[in-house]
Specification:
The protein is of the alpha+beta class. The protein contains five helices and nine strands; from the N terminus they run αββββββααααβββ. Helix content is 29%, strand content 50%. A hairpin with a 5-residue loop joins β8 and β9 (197-207). The two termini are 35 Å apart. Mean pLDDT is 81; it is low at 11-21.
Amino acid sequence: MKKSFLTLCIALVSVCSYAQKGTTSAGLYGAFGSENSNFGIGAKVQYGITEALRAEASFDYFFKKDYLTNMNGSLNLHYLIPISDKFRVYPLAGISYVHWKVDAGDILGDMGMGASFEETMMNQGLSQSDLDLLKQYDPAQYEALKAEYEGAYKEADDSSSESKIGFNVGAGLEYDLSDKLSIFAEGRYQIVSDFDQCVIAAGLSYKF
């Protein structure tokens, strides 16, 4: 997976570097991801290969919601269909590198569980006197329980994350506000094992 990510990063850099040889544009946008119903931000760089074909490299970051953070990088091709001098629509297709992370520490905290054994037991309903009695009458059992809990907590607190490569399909539209500035909106469906989602984005792009 790390090799696949490195390959995608090299491809992203290559697109951006090659874009300097032709007509380029860069944009910023807001996004919405359906998998976790959360909002995010993104940035993109585009290069016009021909009048009808355009390459795009983009990156999305979705803010944490329900303990989940998601980000992805995409390489897409757009086929531009002019509707008027200023208005175009385009189907798109490409690949995505998707990474998501679940913050287990936040989940445990909301359950009243922390790194401290005594604090956690008190959050679960035991009093300090209950803990003192346990330590006094059976210190060995107390230490065993404490060690078992702290070991389990440390293992559970390790945030889990995963990365996968997938495919994009979708369509968008854009309108020229001036010779340099355009507004756009697009929808793309990310086909990723265990993490399919629809991404809706809208923003501004600037032509160099």
